[in-house]
């Protein structure tokens, strides 16, 4: 009978092994509840996991007709009898002639006190509302034998005394947060369904926008066939999309009382809410009880924290409520937003107060809020929100207020809109003689110093910062600390590394004393950059470790400065060729600023391109290069960002032999003067010139440039740049046929690497590096540390894959189709068909790749590869890798020419 068997699994099932510990069959757990809105795979999870875990289970799949005591009891008895048979229990269960309560008493009496553990699964439990049925099940739970676990899959919270069971430790819950797909599961789903799975950046952005909702991810996948189409649809993904509007309309119509629809729309005004906040904002009776009813109904409400009374809506459902908000009058919306703003201010959250005040469209309260809370908003990195609020006021109001002009200057600067920052400074300088404006002289000098440092003019920035330190702050209490930080940065730009390091350490101590968490994090990041410039990469890494601990301790994971930390960490880890960790750090940096706009994430995309280039992953690297070029034309970036991006683009063109692109770049490249190359970004920019000249065969010009750069590195102690310049000289000499000179440059580079531990910069030399190292290792004059590093580099060069020589996915779709269609293939291939991804992995196993190499080839996590291999082995009754290799060889041998 269909109601008494598990549902059929979909064609593509993502194994949820990370939830295995939630399925422990222990005597203590009486009830397991799998609760989430529709589309989260509750039934699929149970139907897939329970057999995998070899857990006996009886199923009863419910529908609305089963909400009748007699009918429910009859089916319950049949399911229970089936479980007893599976467990080998000789039990006679009485027929349902008596009232349901008496029948259940009889079944409880018939069940033995001891048995192997098993489950009773009630699927779609939300259909059961009859008081008599629920009371009988509550009684059943209190008295069921300890070997039995009642397991419910439900859209709503079961009314079975769940709270009491939770307090007693007798409840196991799998909720919306656990059922949401994580990155690995989403990657597996895409790999199974798409010929060109999306990039990691796009996939993680999709997870954030969908909240990991499997239904929404499947919707995305089914409507796209290419990476570009996936990204395009993802940009338009919102709860206001017609498909989701229709779906949510139907959901609310069938699950929510009509009187609560206005309440949902009003709650949709808020980013998060609690019963206390709702009571302050909204008018109506029994608001707390009605809110609790919504929570029980499972309408895409999430707890902000597991143990708190704060809630928020799922991102797509929140977008749907915004779309439906027009059903409230404009006056009602504005009033709700203003009341919400006032409430958030009373609760001490100026950021959420400002967001609501902007929506309220009331200029006077908005201007007052910005003037009062602007310093706190700046200190906590809410630059984008500040910019929105200031834009809502209009230029006329801004230019008349020194405080608002100052906020405008900092907010636009933080978003790299330096032309607007210059506009704010022009307003300041034209009114600086006015008393109200003169009072903020320290703040204005600091802003002007910051813009100067970002324009690369350290000579102008330093005296402005020094002047700011002599004046008392009147509005931004952090002004002296900010000015001190700018002065330290100016010394860094000027190449005075030791003085810069000392000043920034003083900033760190003062920030710690004042409790300025954002400035403390910035100081740690800047220390790390300075240590890298000095060639002390391990010390820089140790400082980054302290910074990460600070972020976790203080909850700074959404501050823009946190992207700075992840960015420089990714750069350092790439240099050490810890590619997986480098990629993860870059992805975290993008996540921090994902809602701020893509221009903020340029440096992290550079890191992802470098990682893909190091892996020989042409498709992923091409995608990142397209992003880089698009982002570069969207903003006016600091030369540090430009130089880093251009270095990666040159490496990409070199790998593809695109000398025309190199020549075009050289014609348009940012200029530079060797005499002013006093920092890593000026050095990088000119080194890019030298690399381009070398590729174009203009050797004398390149050499002259690199020699000038070397003079600066020696004078200023720029050890890491000296190491990279020496590598460029080695590549230059080798390319022009001066092999002895090339080996001498490489010898010096290896000597420097005993201090810097550079690896990624060496590997950028490509095949030439392997040839040079092999010749150099024949010489016994290398120091032991340098020799050890050279031997490691030789090993790494052998593992590197050039684009034209990357391992092919031997079992592609056409080969698979040919194999499966043949009459002489093993029967197991037909009865237990492999997924597309399992075929690919089988082919790569046959090619001799390790799990780690397969993961790198497919751009997935090693744990994902292990999951696929386990599934492949189970389907084909394989126990060892040798058997998988033999199977692949047998299959391929059946195809002509293989």
Descriptive account of the structure:
The protein is built from 48 helices and seven strands. It is mainly alpha-helical. The chain has a five-stranded parallel sheet, sandwiched between helices. The protein has a two-stranded antiparallel sheet with strand order 6-7. The radius of gyration is 32 Å and the shape is globular. About 1% of the residues have low confidence.
Question: Topology, please?
Answer:
Elements (H helix, E strand, L loop, with lengths): L30 E5 L6 H11 L4 E5 L7 H18 L13 H11 L7 E6 L7 H13 L4 E7 L7 H6 L3 E4 L1 H4 L3 H11 L6 H11 L3 H9 L4 H10 L5 H14 L5 H7 L7 H7 L5 H11 L3 E3 L7 E3 L1 H10 L5 H17 L3 H11 L2 H17 L3 H11 L1 H5 L2 H13 L3 H14 L3 H4 L2 H14 L3 H12 L9 H15 L3 H18 L2 H17 L3 H18 L5 H16 L3 H14 L9 H14 L2 H15 L6 H18 L2 H10 L11 H16 L3 H18 L2 H17 L3 H18 L3 H4 L3 H10 L7 H16 L13 H9 L5 H5 L4 H11 L4 H8 L3 H15 L4 H13 L5
Parallel strand pairs: 1-4, 1-5, 2-3, 3-4
Antiparallel strand pairs: 6-7
Write a compact overview of the structure shown.
The chain is built from 48 helices and seven strands.
Total of DSSP H or I helical runs spanning 4+ residues: 48
Gap between N and C termini = 48 Å
| Strand composition percent | under 5%
DSSP strand tally? 7
Low-confidence spans: pLDDT under 50, at least 5 residues? 803-810
Side-by-side strand order of the widest sheet:
2-3-4-1-5
Structural class by helix and strand composition? mainly alpha
Largest sheet: 5 strands, parallel
Into which percent range does the helicity of residues fall? 55-70%
Q: What's the shape?
A: globular
Mean pLDDT: 88
- Rounded to an integer, what's the Rg over CA atoms? 32 Å
């Amino acid at each position: 009978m269909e109601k008494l068997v598990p549902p059929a699994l979909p064609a593509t099932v993502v194994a949820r092994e990370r939830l295995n510990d939630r399925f422990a069959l222990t005597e203590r757990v009486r009830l397991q509840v799998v609760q989430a809105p529709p589309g989260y795979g509750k039934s699929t999870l149970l139907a897939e996991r329970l057999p995998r875990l070899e857990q006996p289970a009886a199923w009863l799949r419910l529908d609305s007709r089963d909400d009748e005591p007699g009918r429910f009891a009859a089916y319950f008895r049949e399911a229970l009898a089936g479980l007893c048979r599976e467990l080998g229990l000789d039990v006679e269960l009485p027929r349902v002639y008596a009232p349901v309560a008496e029948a259940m008493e009889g079944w409880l009496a018939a069940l033995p006190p001891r048995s192997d553990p098993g489950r009773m699964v009630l699927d779609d439990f939300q259909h059961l509302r009859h008081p008599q049925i629920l009371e009988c099940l509550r009684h059943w739970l209190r008295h069921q034998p300890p070997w039995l676990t009642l397991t419910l899959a439900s859209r709503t919270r079961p009314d079975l005394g769940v709270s009491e069971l939770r307090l007693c430790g007798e409840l196991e819950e799998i909720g919306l947060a656990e059922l949401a797909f994580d990155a690995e599961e989403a990657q597996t789903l895409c790999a199974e369904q798409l010929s060109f799975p999306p990039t990691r950046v796009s996939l993680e952005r999709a997870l954030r926008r969908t909240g990991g909702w499997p239904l929404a991810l499947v919707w995305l996948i089914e409507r796209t066939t290419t990476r570009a189409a996936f990204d395009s649809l993802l940009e338009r993904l919102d709860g206001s999309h017609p498909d989701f509007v229709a779906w949510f309309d139907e959901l609310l119509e069938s699950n929510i009382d009509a009187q609560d629809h206005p309440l949902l729309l009003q709650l949709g005004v808020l980013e998060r809410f609690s019963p206390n906040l709702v009571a302050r904002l909204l008018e109506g009776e029994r608001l707390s009880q009605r809110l609790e009813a919504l929570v029980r109904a499972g309408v895409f409400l999430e707890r902000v924290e597991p143990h708190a009374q704060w809630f928020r809506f799922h991102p797509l459902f929140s977008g749907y409520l915004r779309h439906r908000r027009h059903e409230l009058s404009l006056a009602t919306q504005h009033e709700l937003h203003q009341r919400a703003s006032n409430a958030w201010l009373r609760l001490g959250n100026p950021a959420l107060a400002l967001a609501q005040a902007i929506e309220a469209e009331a200029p006077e309260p908005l201007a007052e809020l910005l003037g009062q809370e602007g310093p706190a908003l700046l200190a906590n990195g809410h630059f984008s929100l500040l910019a929105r609020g200031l834009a809502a006021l209009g230029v006329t109001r801004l230019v008349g207020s020194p405080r608002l002009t100052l906020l405008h200057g900092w907010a636009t600067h933080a978003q790299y809109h330096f032309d607007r920052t210059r506009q704010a400074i022009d307003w300041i300088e034209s009114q600086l003689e006015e008393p109200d404006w003169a009072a903020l002289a320290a703040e204005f000098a600091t802003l002007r110093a910051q813009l100067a440092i970002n324009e690369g003019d350290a000579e102008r920035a330093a005296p402005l910062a020094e002047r700011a330190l002599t004046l008392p702050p009147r509005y931004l209490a952090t002004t002296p600390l900010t000015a001190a930080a700018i002065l330290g940065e100016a010394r860094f730009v000027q190449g005075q590394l030791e003085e810069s390091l000392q000043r920034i350490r003083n900033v760190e101590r003062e920030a710690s004393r004042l409790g300025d968490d954002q400035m403390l994090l910035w100081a740690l990041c800047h220390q790390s950059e300075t240590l890298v410039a000095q060639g002390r990469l391990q010390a820089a890494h140790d400082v980054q470790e302290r910074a990460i601990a600070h972020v976790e301790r203080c909850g700074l994971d959404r501050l823009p400065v946190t992207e700075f930390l992840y960015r420089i960490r990714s750069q350092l880890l790439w240099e050490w060729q810890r590619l997986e960790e480098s990629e993860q750090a870059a992805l975290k940096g993008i996540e921090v600023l994902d809602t701020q706009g893509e221009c903020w994430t340029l440096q992290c995309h550079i890191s992802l391109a470098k990682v893909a280039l190091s892996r020989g992953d042409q498709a992923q690297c091409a995608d990142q290069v397209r992003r880089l070029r698009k982002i570069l034309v969207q903003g006016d970036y600091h030369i540090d960002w430009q130089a880093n991006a251009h270095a990666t683009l040159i490496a990409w063109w070199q790998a593809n032999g695109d000398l025309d692109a190199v020549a075009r770049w050289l014609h348009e490249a940012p200029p530079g003067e060797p005499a002013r190359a006093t920092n890593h970004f000026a050095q990088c920019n000119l080194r890019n010139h030298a690399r381009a000249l070398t590729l174009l065969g203009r050797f004398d010009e390149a050499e002259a440039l690199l020699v000038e750069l070397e003079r600066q590195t020696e004078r200023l102690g720029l050890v890491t740049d000296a190491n990279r310049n020496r590598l460029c000289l080695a590549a230059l000499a080798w390319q022009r046929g001066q092999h002895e000179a090339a080996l001498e440059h490489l010898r010096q580079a290896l000597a420097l690497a005993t201090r810097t531990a550079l690896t990624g910069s060496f590997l950028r030399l490509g095949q030439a590096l392997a040839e040079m190292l092999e010749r150099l290792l024949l010489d016994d004059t290398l120091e032991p540390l340098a020799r050890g590093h050279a031997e490691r580099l030789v090993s790494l060069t052998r593992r590197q894959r050039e684009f034209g020589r990357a391992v092919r996915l031997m079992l592609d779709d056409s080969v698979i189709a040919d194999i499966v269609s043949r009459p002489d293939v093993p029967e197991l291939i037909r009865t237990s068909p492999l997924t597309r991804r399992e075929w690919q992995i089988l082919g790569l196993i046959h090619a001799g790749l390790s799990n780690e190499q397969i993961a790198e080839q497919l751009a997935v996590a090693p744990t994902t590869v292990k999951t696929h291999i386990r599934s492949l082995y189970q389907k084909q009754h394989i126990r060892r890798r040798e058997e998988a290799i033999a199977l692949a060889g047998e299959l391929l041998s059946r195809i002509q020419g293989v």
